[in-house]
């Protein structure tokens, strides 16, 4: 009962905050405090739902939907911590909506779906690094898409009504590369910990996940290195980032979907 109540409160708070922020982008500035209060409620109840989930199953079942709910909580947290920065406010409705969808999915699918895992301290460290990396790299991808969107609006002169609320392109790009760099470093650490301490990376059920994850890591790393070495930026950097994110999603969530849903 408590789990369901907290889930409903979090979903309602997320969706209400998304609606208010969407209206704010085309209207007055008076609703920002209300949306911030809803953000705090949504984040707190979302975290409480995850804590209850882990308390009940003892971290044995870390399935696709629980993982997605953890990543969307991190996305929402990182976005909310930026406060009223225009770039963050523009993305927040989409991120909050995604968080609400992840909570709905987690509530509908039993916690015991999927194969159990052996949550050793090393595996917990690996998972924590991987989740943080995934959240930062996903957020970087969101900012990259936003960069393309705002650039197109400004070029086509269709942003007249929103011009005062649109974030500066250079500000979006700087934050995009900061997130990309931080996420790539964390992904590197997650892979290093996995290779050193975990012995099932090239097992039959893990091989495709390992290959796709390594391809994603090489792709993200190449973007960061070429950016700082040769000045890669703009649309090309965003397109490469979207491609790398696709590899990462296929590597983790694709394998989880097959293992937890199709084979579980």
* First-to-last CA distance: 26 Å
| Share of residues in helices | over 70%
Low-pLDDT ranges: none
The DSSP helix count reads 8
Q: How many individual domains?
A: 2
Calculate the mean pLDDT score and round it: 83
Tell me, briefly, the overall form.
flat
Beta-strand residue fraction? under 5%
> What is the count of β-strands?
0
- Label the structural class: mainly alpha
Order of helices and strands: HHHHHHHH
Q: Over the alpha carbons, how many angstroms does the gyration radius reach?
A: 19 Å
Largest sheet: none
Keywords: Membrane, Transmembrane, Transmembrane helix
Organism: Aliidiomarina halalkaliphila
GO biological process, one term: cytochrome complex assembly
Domain Cytochrome c assembly protein: 62-262
Sum up the structure in keywords.
2 domains, 264 residues, flat, 8 helices, mainly alpha
3D architecture notes:
The protein has 264 residues and is an all-alpha fold. The chain has two domains: 1-111; 120-264, no CATH class. 79% of the residues lie in helices and 0% in strands. It contains eight helices and no strands. It has helices at 2-25, 32-57, 64-81, 86-108, 121-156, 169-197, 207-230, 234-262. Helix 5 (121-156) crosses helix 8 and helix 7 packs antiparallel against helix 8 (234-262). Residues 62-262 form the Cytochrome c assembly protein domain. This is ABC transporter permease. The chain crosses the membrane at residues 6-23, 35-54, 60-78, 90-113, 125-150, 175-198, 210-229, 236-254. Keywords: Membrane, Transmembrane, Transmembrane helix. One of its GO terms (cellular component) is plasma membrane.
